[in-house]
Amino acid sequence: MAKVPAKEKKVRRIDFNLDAPHAQSVLLVGTFNNWSLTKHPMKKDAQGLWKKTVMLAPGTHEYKFVVDGTWVEDPQNERRILNTFGSANSIVHVRK
Hints:
The protein is mainly beta. The chain has strands at residues 12-19, 26-30, 43-44, 49-56, 59-67, 70-72, 80-82, 88-94. Helix content is 0%, strand content 47%. The strands form two sheets. Strands 2, 5, 6, 7 and 8 form a five-stranded antiparallel β-sheet that branches. It has a three-stranded antiparallel β-sheet with strand order 1-4-3, with no helix packed on it. A hairpin with a 5-residue loop joins strand 7 (80-82) and strand 8 (88-94).
């Protein structure tokens, strides 16, 4: 009996950017990495723009940046949802 291949999820490449030239460290945290403070460190370019590309499955994902230990929403993204801490998370919707 032949095995039926598992259904593949179509993941998409999503770029995250944050303009924070004076920051010493920036992390990308969200539902896609279980809010991990180690999984997605961002890298700063010569102009002070922090960047990270991640592969995300289709759906809606919540995220924030952690800038030098302070959790901040994405200032370039107006899409937000309230969280259980009384603040908001930025959201990104990945198409199928």
